[in-house]
Amino acid sequence: MLARYYPLPKQGFQQALGYIAAHRGPMDHRIGLSLGGKAARFYDPTFPYIEDSNQLELWLATADRPTWVLYTFENDLRHAWPKMHEWLMTATAHRATFPSVIGGGAVHVRLWLPSNKTTGAPSHEAESPASPSGDSLSLR
How far apart are CA 63 and CA 1, in angstroms? Predict the structure, then answer.
């Protein structure tokens, strides 16, 4: 009986990717963190994937455009990569959550805005990151 449910998606990655596609501006970037990045690549092999805090720090060194961030299994992310999770919670703004039938497996979408925005994209002008200063968290 369970076998018929195996082919069905258990998490909302397709919905999350659709949400990002519908809301991102033409110059916006997108990234998937940790397990969320791996899963996003299953549906879109071009989706940029950041596996750990070191890779996030490298990405932040050159990031200069609004970026949609996708992740899942928040508790696992918090324990495995606490600096990455801290950046996520302080430097990005929540945009959407897509439920899962797997415990703790909701798919989350957040938006990161660079502190010195130069894109001029009007779609994000009124939006701000969760951090009051808008500064990126140094992961060192």
Answer: 48
pLDDT digits (tens, 9 = 90+) for 51-95: 999 999 999 999 999 999 999 989 899 999 999 999 999 999 999
Considering only the top CATH level, what class is 16-115? alpha beta
Q: What is the torsion angle, in degrees rounded to the nearest 10, for the CA atoms of residue 85, residue 48, residue 97 and residue 22?
A: 140
CA atoms of 89 and 100, how far apart (whole Å):
21
Task: Provide the angle, in degrees to the nearest 10, between the axes of the packed helices 34-43 and 13-23.
Answer: 80
Structure tokens, 133: 């200063």
The domain segmentation of the chain, as residue ranges, is: 16-115
Decide: residue 121, CB within 10 A, 0-12 exposed, 13-18 middle, 19+ buried: middle
Give me the percent of the chain exceeding a pLDDT of 90. 56
